[in-house]
Each structure stands twice: as structure tokens, then as C-alpha cells.
Model the fold of this input.
Amino acid sequence: MTAFYKLSGSGNDFVALVESVPEPDPDSEQIRAWCRRGVSLGADGLFALRRRGDGVEMAYWNADGLPADLCLNGTRCAAQLAFHLGWATERVRIATAAESVEARRLDASRVALELPAPPAPSARTVAAGGSWSGWSVLVGVPHFVLAWPESLARAPVRELGRALRYAPDFAPAGTNVDFVRFPDPGTVEIRTYERGVEDETLSCGSGVLAAAAVGLALGRSRPAPGSPLLVRTQGGFTLEVGMGEPESGAPAPRWTLGGDARVVAEGELLPGAASPAPPPAWS
Done:
């Protein structure tokens, strides 16, 4: 039996293992089995959370069982779990494979991360069943942002997202694909096809920052002074991106990403959770 927590960050859901995670880390087959919906617990990814000095350290894997350097919704959830466990009170530093970030507890269902500003987006045109112009942004993990000209309700997120995710231009690592709309200077709408989940997810934190970076670069996003940029996700939650001025002596401004991050359940993964389901006979 394996103790677990289940968490959700604006609809992006995770299985978490804490402190007593066996060494070595769970293997990719276990992770894929646990994250499979319908026949196991189900999740977009899994993270292991461990105490490290005054802070915590997280290792993250997508639902395909492969590690990812950064998942910002997962990082917000990891912080909320640290607060829930009493490992920290109002603030905690979280070490990830990509970078170390500071997290601040807003309340029992919201956490804000303090992060370096993303790099400037790079315009590129990609062939995938047609020619698609967008912007590449590395926010710990790669993103390709498409400015969608109409309602996101009709955006072909699964079909086009998958084609672009596997486009030769992004080989071998592939990319996350974000369909983004800028309805007004203070608001962004986003849907994301996530690499490693191989489907649309209800929210993607690093995608939200990538979209904000593109909106800022294009002059489409200009929130009122002192107000955050509001980013509406497929999960129905709104995340807030604060675009701060550079700190004294700092080479770049600090951004914040705040919003929903909740501990929703805890329990034990029983052996049946790791039993792989056979493919259908006609596959």
C-alpha cells in the first residue's frame, strides 16, 4: 500500500507522495498506471514532495510516466500540500528540476508563486497539416502559443494541438500547445494541449505564463497599474499573473502566478491501482 494525496490546481489534477516515498522513485509503469483515468486513481501527473532544510523539494512526472522539469500548477499544489502538512506556514521555497521558486499561501484553496519573468517569445511558423504562425516560449518547459482569432469553444485543441506537439520543428522533445485569445487588455483566455498528458488539460500554469508573455510582447495585454492580468482557463478558474517591476539590483522583474490549489483527498493506493488495463481487442 502507498499513501497518497490528491490535489487540484484550477482543474489540473495530481497524485502526490510525501516524505515516505520509497527510494528509488516510482517507476514510469507505476506512474502511468496510477494516473490512468477510469481504471485507477487518475491524474494529469504525479509529484513526490520531500522536506529539504527550510524548504521542500518536488520531483514531477507527467501522466505518461516521464519526468518534466517544471509544472507550475503542480508547484502551487505542492506548496499547498506543504502548508496542509504543517511543513510551512505562510511562505515556502520549493526546489524543482528547473528552478527554485517562492510560494505564498493566500488561503486554504489558493497559492501564489513568485517567479522570474519568462524570456521574450520567439515568433515562428510551423508546418503541421498547414502553416501555423505562433510564438515559442520556454517557461521551464517548451510552449507554442497560437493567438486564436475566434471563440476558444471552437478551437481544435486536441486535433491541431496534437499535430503541433509532434511537429518535426519541435523534435525530439515536442512542445505544449496553447490556444490563446485576448478579449481585452486585462484578460486572457487559454486552452492547452499538454505534452506528456497527450490531451487537453483543464489548466496549465506554465502555459498561462507563456500566454501572458506573448500578450505583453504583442501589446495585447496591458492590465491597469497595480492590477494582475486575469487568465481564464478551461477548468473555469481564473489565474492571476502579476507583472512586477525589477527589484533593486535584480536583472529582471519578478512575476507572480496565483490561484486555485487545493488538497482534495488522501488515502492509500492499493495493488489494484497499479494493474494495467489491456487494450481493446480491435486496437
Observations:
- The mean pLDDT is 94.
- The longest strand covers residues 131-139.
